[in-house]
Amino acid sequence: IIGPDPSHFINSNENVQFTGELYGEDLKHILRKVDVAISSMALEKLEMYVGSPLKTRWYLALGIPVILGYRDEALDPSSEYILEIKPEDWPLNNNMISVIEKFVKNWNNKRINSLKSEEISAQKIEKDRIDFLLKRL
Predict the structure, then answer these.
(1) Which helix H or strand E contains 83, and what residues bound it?
(2) SS3 of 103, please?
């Protein structure tokens, strides 16, 4: 887990490591080793259900598949490289845990090779927003 170390209040096992906050080459070095990235989770606690965090775009640009805890209007949740966990999926049941395990195993030592940069570009996202607004007029 990249970010502030919450290990003082989270029980973890040998599969979870806390790196602290990383930037630049240190961050790139770690991300080269990961199979799947986990983007923002629990946005519903802030009454947010849709998001588009920059880190998700960055993971995808690096070819890393992503597990999302929110709906990203710019990404197709049925894409093979996106796993969306909806707020109603919490707490995770055995079926959802199996889905996550299968997703992660599927991406073991692989990268996304079919992603086109325009799928995650800001220009596309903004064009889609403008098109949506114009349809409402």
Answers:
(1) strand 82-84
(2) helix
Instruction: Please give the Cα distance from 65 to 35 (Å, whole number).
Output: 7
Pick from 52, 69, 39, 47: which is nearest to 120 by CA?
Answer: 52
- pTM for this structure? 0.77
CB 59 within 8 A of CB 31: yes
Q: Which run of H or of E encompasses 56?
A: helix 54-61
Contact 67, 85 (CB under 8 A): yes
pLDDT digit string (tens) for 8-33?
656 666 767 778 888 889 988 999 88
Distance separating alpha carbons of residues 96 and 76, to the nearest angstrom: 19
SS3 call for 92: coil
